[in-house]
Write a structure and sequence with these properties.
This protein has about 140 residues and is an all-alpha fold. The protein contains 5 helices and no strands.
Length: about 140
C-alpha cells in the first residue's frame, strides 16, 4: 500500500503541482523568462551533478579504502546526485527541493536521518580481485 501511495505521488501529484506552479510563475513573469529560468536551473543542476557528484563519490571511495565508517557519507553523496537530478527535472518545486538538498546543513540532517534508518541494514565493503584472477571484460 505504501508503494502505491509513493507511485501516485511521483506520477500524479508532483506533476500536477509542478504544472500549477509553472503556470503561476509564467503568469507573473511571462513565458520567456519562465522557460529561461527553468532551463538555467537545469543547466546548473547538470553542472552540480558533474562536479559535486564526482567529488562526493571520490570522498566515499577514499573513506572506504581507509576503513572509515561511510554511512552518512554514502547517503550524503547520493543526496547530492538526487539534488542534481531534481534540479535537472523541469519544475520549480523539484528545483527548490534540489537546491535545499545542496545546502550542507539540510543535506547533513537528511543524510543522518536516512543513515540511521538504513545504516544498520547496509554494510559497505571494498572488494579487490584475487591475485591471478583475469580482469573482468564485458563485450558489447
Amino acid at each position: 500500500m505504501v508503494m502505491v501511495l509513493v507511485l501516485v505521488a511521483l506520477f500524479i501529484i508532483i506533476p500536477v503541482v509542478e504544472i500549477a506552479v509553472i503556470l503561476q510563475v509564467g503568469s507573473a513573469l511571462g513565458v520567456v523568462p519562465t522557460v529561461a529560468l527553468l532551463l538555467g536551473i537545469a543547466v546548473v543542476g547538470g553542472v552540480v551533478a558533474r562536479r559535486q557528484g564526482v567529488r562526493a563519490i571520490q570522498d566515499v571511495r577514499a573513506a572506504m579504502l581507509s576503513g572509515q565508517k561511510v554511512g552518512t557519507r554514502v547517503v550524503s553523496a547520493a543526496l547530492v546526485l538526487v539534488a542534481a537530478v531534481l534540479m535537472i527535472a523541469p519544475g520549480f518545486v523539484t528545483d527548490a527541493v534540489g537546491i535545499l538538498l545542496l545546502a550542507p546543513p539540510v543535506r547533513g540532517l537528511v543524510a543522518r536521518v536516512i543513515a540511521r534508518r538504513v545504516g544498520p541494514r547496509v554494510r559497505a565493503q571494498v572488494v579487490s580481485p584475487r591475485k591471478g584472477d583475469p580482469p573482468d571484460i564485458i563485450d558489447i
